[in-house]
Amino acid sequence: MTVKLGTRAATVSGRIPDELVASSVFLLKRLGTAAKQKAVDAYEEAGLSPYHHGILALLDEGGVRETQGAIADALGYDRGTLVGLLDELEAEHFVERRRDPVDRRRHIVRLTPEGKRALERLRRVARRVEDEFLARLDDEQRAALHELLLRLASTHEPRCAGPVEPPA
Amino acid sequence: MTVKLGTRAATVSGRIPDELVASSVFLLKRLGTAAKQKAVDAYEEAGLSPYHHGILALLDEGGVRETQGAIADALGYDRGTLVGLLDELEAEHFVERRRDPVDRRRHIVRLTPEGKRALERLRRVARRVEDEFLARLDDEQRAALHELLLRLASTHEPRCAGPVEPPA
DNA sequence: TATTGTTATACTCTATAACTATA
DNA sequence: TATAGTTATAGAGTATAACAATA
Lengths: 168, 168
Hints:
Two copies of one chain form a homodimer. With 168 residues, chain A is mostly helical. Chain A is 58% helix and 8% strand. The first copy, chain A, is built from seven helices and three strands, in the order H-H-H-E-H-H-E-E-H-H. In chain A, strands 1-3-2 form a three-stranded antiparallel β-sheet. In chain A, strand 2 and strand 3 form a beta hairpin. Mean pLDDT of chain A is 88; it is low at 1-12 and 164-168. At the A-B interface, helix 1, helix 2, helix 3, helix 4 and helix 6 of A face helix 1, helix 2, helix 3, helix 4 and helix 6 of B.
């Protein structure tokens, strides 16, 4: 099914070329950028970023304590970048770092009760962003979109493993 | 419909938290980044970038000649950035710049025959990227995804105007 | 005075690699 | 010697603003 515009006028002033709009990869790039922008702006009001949300969510889900390397690897963050993010979370007492007595090179990161509350605030922010961004889609369309994105993620973002069964 | 993973083990080593994977906005961000990376890499082999493709496609579609401001506005590029992109295209003789005799502040940019051929090469690259990126989806799923992305773009990337009818 | 294209500047992100302390 | 975390550095990318020519 080829997308066909009504009028193919000689002058297409102000519009993105059809051949780009016809490309899902192009749309994914643009929408991904827009989504990131909206998310960063929204989290900013809470003084944090989507990256912080990722860290807190991981700690909450995975038994509250993880080493820095495990966090970085699971989320796909650079280890150097993670240090700064944890510094910020620790300054707000949302996480605690302590040396692992078993291997004193490691730091064990733990989620604090304040961190858990911050996470709940971030979840509300995320829900709001989600709702605003998908406003034009009804529930069925949202489910369909999510299913398709999950399928793409299973090859292009393997860390998302998730419920979509591997190769068909 | 809530995504539910089989085992909710105490340790989720190596995986992105469920609450992120459950978010379409999160997936859009990650997939958008991955798509951009793949696209840039692929276009690099042709010595150009997706940005160049946008410019050439716009010129081809819109009557071959446009002013720099019109190009920048239509594609959403910064005008300063566009200068460098056009320099590169002009160095390869894919476009020509000449002063507009009517308003000597303006530059008219024209697509050359070589530029048209380059555009055709870039179209092949784009088709390949598209096919690789959507490899896990069948034709029906691709159409469904495109439809949904178009709908999102109509609010978050208005320049994509396109065939999806405005408000519901 | 405002606008077009250009150039220069600065700022953000990210990636790399050095550095320490432990193993 | 290798690894975990930290810090510093450099590069790409982007946004901002100054600038010259023209309207």
